[in-house]
Amino acid sequence: MGSLLRSRMFRQQFIMHSLYFAVILGLLFYQVGMQTIKELENQQEHLANVYRDQLEQSLKGWYGGQRSTLKAISLMLEQKSKEELGSNATTALIARILTAYPEVADLVVLDSKGNIVNTRAMSAYSGAYNLADRAYFQSALAQGEGGGGFFANKKTGALTLALSRRITSSEGENYVLALYITFDSFLKNFSIFTENGLGSTYLLDSEGRTLYTSQATDGVLITPEHCALIKQNGKGHIDLESRLYGRIHSAYFWMDSLQVAILVVVAPELLLGPLQKVQVFVVLLGIIALLVSLLLSYWMTSQVYRPIASLVQAVNDMAASNYNHNITVQADGEIGLLIESFNKMQRIVSERELFLKDTAQRDSLTGLLNHGTFLELLDRSVMTRPAVSLVMLDIDHFKAVNDTYGHQAGDMVLQKLSEILVSSLRDRDIIARYGGEEFALIPYNTGYESMLCERIRSNVETADFIFNGKRIPITVSLGWTSLSIPENPDVPCLCSVLIQAADSALYAAKKGGRNLVEQQLISPSVSPAVPESIQGIR
């Protein structure tokens, strides 16, 4: 060893190779580190945008549902006389509606001057309050519908959301029906939407005050200027400062109907934690590599670089929503733990995304495929199968079930019917809730449609639909059709023909007395858009 160290050539080669190795290793680690940081930041921004869009869709769906509820209630009171609107019968109706919709805090009928005409506890409000100064009252009276942000309730002082709609009495006088939802009730739904573990969610009012946060420990600094920018732009992303993480990416949107801003921040530790472990290990490895021989240094470098390169590739694939790149490089120590943790994280993200996609494709009440997914599968069936059959099914007198037993009973009937349909079909048959009380199915094979429909009709007729100890008689009407698919089919045209024919058969079953199965033959008279190549084919 001493003689080697005394050799000037050895010293020069050792120093030159050491410097060359140090530069190459330093540049390599720098490039890998910068690329990894960039890709992780992009992934953080991407996940924040996805999280924000899902939250926005959920909130708008919830708000639209409240609007639909208000519209349905207003139709019950439309064209009632002045005496009827202020009667005990209307008070009782309001009480029943509030029982059916527990998240609604109150329903109030106001006259054109803002005085309370009727509510659940009329004696507690009569003559006590005038709501003519409320924006939701004024906008409903002027434009037909109204709403706005949260405000302090005059009686309780609690934050409350109001939705309003104009109604007209039989005497032609205008009234306003107002639906109230407390902030606590709203938060129950909002917190459900944010329970995904991806990070923090902030709910801000129009002046930048934080109304709710799902994670108060990340120290994100949000100023009124941030809220003004969010309100001005409507939707986008912004960089914020966190006392815990420093600069972080966030995404936001402004919901004008609620007058609130929603800001989401993806937890940095989900993405940056593995990066910090890599950086620490790379620095230690570089110091050790400089002290060993070139061959050992090369071997050590290869053991480090290959896992890091696989990690970068896996991060790139995740950024492109490709979760099939599982890191298979074998390594010991911290890198092995990092690879194991990354593969585990990749599986969790993949499973969560698949779950979200599956949830978006299914009806929330019955668990069956929803209308949009069914139409996509019908298109695919027409494109890929030599023949396609379509069955449309509708519950007989379903409105009477809701009117007689209540909407909860109607929901039970839909769920029970869905179970009967699934048990009556084979695994490869497609079943979906087409809309309301109507269902649609695509048998995987053709030729046994009549037998299948009759089995479903019989199974439903003999099934026990029990609600609150009472048996509800339920029957269904079914209509079906079948079509042989030509070469190079006009998919939208053929799908339209199939739906139209199945609907016609269903209508015939309804018209024929219900609890029947009817078939519709497809012919040129059914739809002029049917190509000549399929005319006369069932």
TrEMBL record:
Keywords, ordered alphabetically: Membrane, Transmembrane, Transmembrane helix
The protein's name: diguanylate cyclase
Organism: Gracilinema caldarium
TM annotation in the entry: 251-273, 280-300
One Pfam family cited in the UniProt record for this chain: GGDEF
Reaction equation(s) it catalyzes: 2 GTP = 3',3'-c-di-GMP + 2 diphosphate
Annotated HAMP domain residues: 302-354
Source superkingdom: Bacteria
Enzyme superclass (EC): transferase
